[in-house]
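Anyone able to model this chain together with adenosine-5'-diphosphate?
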Amino acid sequence: MSRTSILSCEEVTVAFDGFKAVQGMSLSLDPGELRFLIGPNGAGKTTMLDVICGKVKPVSGSVSFHSRAGVVDITKRKEHKIAELGIGRKFQTPSIFAGLSVMENLEIAMSQNRSVWATLRASLTARERERIDEELALIGLGDHRHTRAGLLSHGQKQWLEIGMMLMQEPEILLLDEPVAGMTDRETDKTGELLQEIVKRRTVVVVEHDMEFVRNFASKVTVMHEGRLLKDGTMDEIQRDDRVAEVYLGK
Ligand code: ADP
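re: yes, here you go
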């Protein structure tokens, strides 16, 4: 792993009942990157996120996390341990508490080791209030702090969930199609949010929306049939004949 990487996947192979969903895949992330992972359906993108967050274990290869606390081989670590170390994962469906307010959702996310009710009964410290205010401003829900989460728009729910991840101070955020189902305006706002987040953290996004990728990607990794097809800037990716053949041109 290079000294500057925050995460390095080396030659990762994943098999499901003998079928290789990912084969010899290597991926290295620099701190503060907004990396997009693209490729046709079934290319192995989600499986790679699953490997990084520990949900799926590779049959060979390794994953190391160069966290603020030091370099950790997370290949065999349990999913919750990897989350504690500082890698957060967001799935497509938001997992928010629909009956609670936006602010209460953030409070719960901040104090993972307390029960929900103990958290809501406890009064917030000044520092905790400040953190929640910062996060509300970042995710653009400052005016909705008392709104029930279930009443938010689809886009706002996604931002709330991103805010909930941020309350846990991850160093790396893994997002699976965060703009799916969003309006154009919500999609742009999400891109701006991600650009703000990478000022302090590293983000990996699995994405199908190519316009979104074009507008916000600094670096793109293309997968095809479980393998790395190409890493590069959006310009480099768009000029690549193999990428055009398997993906962009289809
Ligand atoms: P992508 O995210 O690029 O669409 P996936 O990582 O979801 O691709 O899937 C890669 C391949 O692995 C697909 O052929 C998919 O059907 C298969 N796959 C993914 N998860 C499982 C699983 N739990 N069991 C069996 N096959 C799986």
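The beta strands are 7-16, 19-29, 34-38, 60-67, 70-73, 87-90, 172-176, 202-206, 219-224, 227-232.
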